[in-house]
């Protein structure tokens, strides 16, 4: 169920209004990060894809970066995930890195500089 829900959030997150609405739901980002950290391969792939879409919004970049464990989990997936997981994590990292503070934090978590914008 969690994998499917993350996939739905990924699809809904294509729309700018939905990006804002999803991020405002209490616990939504925390749930995606938990799935990103502790889920199976498909769950991690879907959570990273959802975060990638949500990170298009400037306010969401900050909110995601502040979510405990989010950046570390994305960097871990970028390094050790499935091919799809790595691709989705790379997209999320690329979007998140457009914020200077977040970019610096990603580097501190060991994100390869080549993955950043």
**Helix/strand class:** mainly alpha
Low-confidence segments, given as residue ranges, are: none
Helix share, percent = over 70%
Query: Helical segment tally?
Result: 8
Portion in beta strands: under 5%
Mean of pLDDT: 91
Number of strands: 0
What spatial form do the alpha-carbon principal axes imply?
globular
**Distance N terminus to C terminus?**
33 Å
| Major sheet description | none
The helix/strand series, from N terminus to C terminus, equals HHHHHHHH
Output the radius of gyration.
12 Å
Describe this structure in words.
The protein has eight helices and no strands. It has 117 residues and is an all-alpha fold. The longest helix is centred in the middle third of the chain and has 14 residues, at 41-54.
Topology:
Layout: H1 2-12, H2 16-24, H3 28-38, H4 41-54, H5 58-66, H6 70-80, H7 83-96, H8 100-108
What is the structure about, briefly put?
It is built from eight helices and no strands. The chain has helices at residues 2-12, 16-24, 28-38, 41-54, 58-66, 70-80, 83-96, 100-108. Helix 3 (28-38) packs antiparallel against helix 4, helix 3 runs parallel beside helix 6 (70-80) and helix 4 runs parallel beside helix 7 (83-96).
